[in-house]
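Bumping my old thread because nobody answered last time. Still need a sequence for this structure:
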């Protein structure tokens, strides 16, 4: 059975993706630190079904504060990594909240990528971008191959 790491597994995308991948025959290792960006009760709710599944393991860990050894121990167990852990919300990402974005988006990603680069088991690293790269396109349904308004 292929093993896949999903960071941000208690979040909106991570939890739904974890359920789909388990249905598709994967074993999912999920990492999350339950940031207070929105209610942790909602994150717990997102995880309820997953925690009852024997093909899911939750590791509570703040990636931005994890040691290199902690992260390499985790990524060496998996073949695929989907990185969904983040501080989302481009509008709040300036001013006093900027430090949270640096911590959860830049430092956490850099630490994870360094660990993955040393883990020979990992075949693919999939990173979630932001829908904000498409710019302000109103209510138009976005497609992955749409051109970025920032280009
Ligand atoms: N939701 C959308 O419509 C959408 C669209 C495009 C892109 N994205 C991107 O996809 C990613 C996930 O979005 P989402 O909507 O699921 O967000 P979310 O806030 O629901 O989930 C993110 C999860 O990451 C966890 N997390 C944050 N920092 C962490 C850290 N340092 N260590 C461990 N866990 C950490 C949080 O606790 C949270 O559970 C983000 O990068 C977001 O910008 C989301």
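Sorry it took so long. Here it is:
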């Amino acid at each position: 059975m292929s093993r896949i790491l999903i960071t941000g597994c208690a979040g909106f995308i991570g939890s739904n993706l974890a359920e789909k991948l388990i249905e598709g025959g994967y074993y999912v290792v999920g990492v999350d630190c339950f940031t207070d960006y929105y209610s942790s009760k909602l994150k717990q709710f997102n995880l309820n079904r997953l925690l009852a599944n024997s093909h899911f393991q939750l590791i509570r860990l703040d990636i931005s504060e994890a040691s290199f050894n902690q992260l390499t121990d985790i990524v060496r167990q998996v073949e695929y990594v989907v990185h969904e852990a983040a501080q989302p919300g481009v509008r709040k990402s300036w001013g006093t909240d900027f430090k949270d974005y640096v911590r959860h988006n830049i430092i956490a990603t850099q630490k994870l990528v360094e660990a993955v680069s040393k883990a020979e088991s990992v075949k693919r690293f999939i990173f979630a971008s932001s829908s904000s790269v498409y710019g302000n396109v109103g209510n138009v349904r976005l497609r992955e191959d749409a051109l970025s308004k920032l280009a």
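The first strand starts at residue 3 and ends at 7. Let me know if any region looks off to you.
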